């Protein structure tokens, strides 16, 4: 069979093996790489960022194999080709890239995919010379992605690996030969990085990003050689660890924030974006292509960096990290318990934040992925975490995030809330002094006792469980199903409330969208009081990205 795995064969199965080995190697070296992270910012997260990027890439690759396996041609299950495998691997890294090092790794994988995924002769397997060209392209594209390349970094290690791989390029060279040469070249270059970069020399360490790249290249050689190396690419404590605390961004005199987002934009617009962001900060890396990009920059004005993305195209999955906060959290002891809540609106995020929760903002049409939820659990920095999923669509991702957090020693419980108002009800009874199980049971009960509704505007004519609606009609959804179709927000809201309160209730929660006037809340509160004297009403502002109206009845 064309994709049958074996030593020296670079095919789709070898890519999957490479991905699995790389993820395992980065997982073992993660804490040690974090510990030697001193450049460009000593924020102790390079190992974690590389691991999370590799994890996202591996997940996308696994999904590509599952999709190919589900396709049947003439009764025979399909399998991913080499081109499909490397493209999926690179795309997953692009989507899930974290930090400066993860973003560069994503571009390195894209460079490999640009060669292996485009060469017709590599439909099933790639030769040694072709792999050498792929590594060369990867290094070239990584250098081009960084606004101001610095030697003594991950780029230097990538360049050395490419040159070493090209040195053995010959018609008879196997992919394993090239991979081993690249691995050896990378190790040698990594050892020289302290002499190239003053920050590394002062700390007495090698470059953290380069250390991770050595692990990835070592995994490639393992996948192709069919044998384990004499020693792991990166072993625990294999590199020096700074004996004194390293300064954070403010102490180093650099920008205070890291901004990362995915961007849908044209290549021309991205060129202009590079120039604009280069004037705002440093550590600028823009990777990707074909209309989808991952943007990374360190700035003092994160709002301006995001606004630049809005001018260029459509930014999403925006992450803003304050270096000082990250550094202090890394040093601080873990809290005993924390709550992580997914909320659909900036106002709700602020409200939950005031109540002590770590929040993940869900924007319209976007569902936070597993990596975002895992990151939120890490930001909560607690031994025990209660995760409020916020919607039915997020249950699977929340469950996967919980499993990954548990692997890191965090006790996690997922409360399958289906609406933000259920999350508010659960958060209201959260008791950090109770036992973990008691707290989870009480919060689950509060969420389950809250009926929820949402008012939305129909975008087109459609059939619903309440009849046919026209574009512009107001839909009243109760517990996820369309129950009322109306012409205006007030009357539809009244009809929804009447149905919900028909089976009883003690408290009505109203969450108003950004375009809804305060007068509607006053009108609905008066409506509830007129027909249900014993029922109290509370009103919150959902803020930007929230639905026109959310209703909860407890």
Descriptors:
20 helices, 554 residues, alpha+beta, six-stranded mixed sheet, disordered N terminus
What is the CA–CA distance across the termini? 61 Å
Record the strand order, biggest sheet: 17-16-13-20-18-19
| Shape by Cα distribution | elongated
Main sheet summary: 6 strands, mixed
List the helices and strands and how they pair.
Elements: E1 10-11, H1 12-35, H2 46-70, E2 72-73, E3 76-77, H3 82-96, H4 99-116, E4 125-126, H5 128-145, H6 154-167, H7 175-192, H8 198-203, H9 208-225, H10 249-252, E5 257-264, H11 267-278, E6 281-289, E7 292-299, H12 302-312, E8 314-322, H13 323-331, E9 335-343, H14 346-354, E10 358-361, H15 370-380, E11 382-388, H16 395-407, E12 411-415, H17 420-428, H18 436-448, E13 451-457, E14 462-464, E15 467-469, E16 474-478, E17 481-486, H19 489-501, E18 507-512, H20 518-531, E19 536-541, E20 549-553
Parallel strand pairs: 9-10, 9-11, 11-12, 18-19
Antiparallel strand pairs: 1-4, 2-3, 5-7, 5-8, 6-7, 13-16, 13-20, 14-15, 16-17, 18-20
Helix pairs in contact: 1-2, 1-3, 1-9, 2-3, 2-4, 3-4, 4-5, 5-6, 5-7, 6-7, 6-9, 7-9, 11-12, 15-16, 17-18, 19-20
């Amino acid at each position: 069979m064309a994709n049958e795995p074996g030593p020296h064969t670079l095919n789709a199965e070898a890519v999957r093996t490479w991905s699995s080995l790389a993820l395992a190697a980065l997982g073992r070296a993660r804490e040690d790489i974090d510990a030697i992270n001193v450049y460009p910012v000593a924020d102790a997260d390079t190992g974690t960022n590389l691991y999370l990027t590799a994890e996202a890439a591996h997940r996308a690759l696994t999904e590509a194999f599952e999709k190919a396996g589900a396709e049947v041609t003439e009764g025979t299950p399909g399998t991913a080709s080499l081109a499909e495998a490397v493209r999926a691997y690179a795309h997953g890294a692009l989507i899930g890239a974290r930090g400066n090092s993860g973003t560069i790794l994503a571009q390195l994988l894209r460079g490999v995919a640009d060669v292996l995924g485009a060469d017709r002769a590599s439909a099933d397997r790639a030769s040694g010379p072709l792999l050498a060209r792929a590594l060369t392209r990867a290094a070239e594209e990584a250098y081009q992605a960084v606004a101001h390349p610095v030697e003594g970094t991950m780029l230097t290690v990538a360049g050395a690996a490419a040159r070493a791989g090209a040195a053995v390029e010959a018609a008879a060279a196997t992919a394993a030969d090239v991979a081993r040469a690249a691995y050896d070249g990378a190790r040698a270059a990594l050892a020289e990085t302290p002499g190239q970069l003053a920050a590394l020399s002062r700390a007495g360490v090698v470059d953290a990003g380069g250390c991770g790249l050595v692990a990835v290249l070592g995994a490639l050689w393992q996948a192709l050689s069919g044998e384990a190396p004499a020693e792991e690419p990166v072993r625990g404590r294999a590199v020096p660890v700074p004996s004194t605390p390293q300064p954070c961004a403010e102490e180093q005199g650099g920008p205070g924030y890291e901004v990362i987002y995915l961007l849908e934009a044209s290549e021309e617009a991205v060129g202009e974006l590079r120039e604009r962001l280069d004037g705002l900060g440093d550590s600028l890396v823009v990777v990707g292509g074909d209309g989808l990009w991952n943007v990374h920059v360190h700035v003092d004005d994160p709002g301006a960096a995001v606004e630049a993305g809005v001018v260029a195209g459509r930014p999403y999955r925006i992450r803003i990290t304050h270096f000082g906060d990250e550094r202090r959290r890394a040093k601080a002891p873990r809290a005993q318990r924390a709550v992580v809540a997914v909320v659909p609106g900036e106002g709700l995020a602020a409200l939950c934040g005031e109540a002590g929760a770590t929040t993940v903002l869900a924007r319209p049409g976007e569902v936070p992925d597993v990596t975002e939820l895992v990151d939120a659990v890490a930001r909560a920095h607690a031994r025990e975490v209660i995760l409020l999923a916020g919607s039915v669509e997020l249950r699977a991702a929340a469950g996967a995030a919980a499993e990954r957090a548990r692997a890191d020693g965090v006790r996690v419980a997922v409360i399958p809330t289906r609406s933000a108002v259920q999350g508010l009800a659960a958060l209201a009874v959260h008791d950090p002094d109770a036992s973990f199980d008691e707290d989870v049971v009480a919060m689950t009960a509060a969420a389950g006792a809250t009926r929820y509704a949402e008012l939305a505007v129909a975008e087109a004519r459609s059939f619903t469980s309440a009849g046919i609606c026209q574009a512009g009609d107001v839909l009243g959804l109760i517990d996820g199903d369309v129950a009322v179709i109306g012409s205006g927000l007030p009357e539809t809201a009244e009809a929804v409330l009447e149905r919900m309160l028909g089976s009883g209730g003690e408290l009505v929660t109203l969450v108003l969208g950004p375009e809804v006037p305060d007068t509607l809340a006053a009108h609905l509160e008066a409506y509830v009081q007129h027909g249900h004297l014993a029922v109290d009403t509370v009103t919150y502002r959902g803020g930007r990205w929230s639905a026109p109206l959310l209703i909860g009845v407890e």
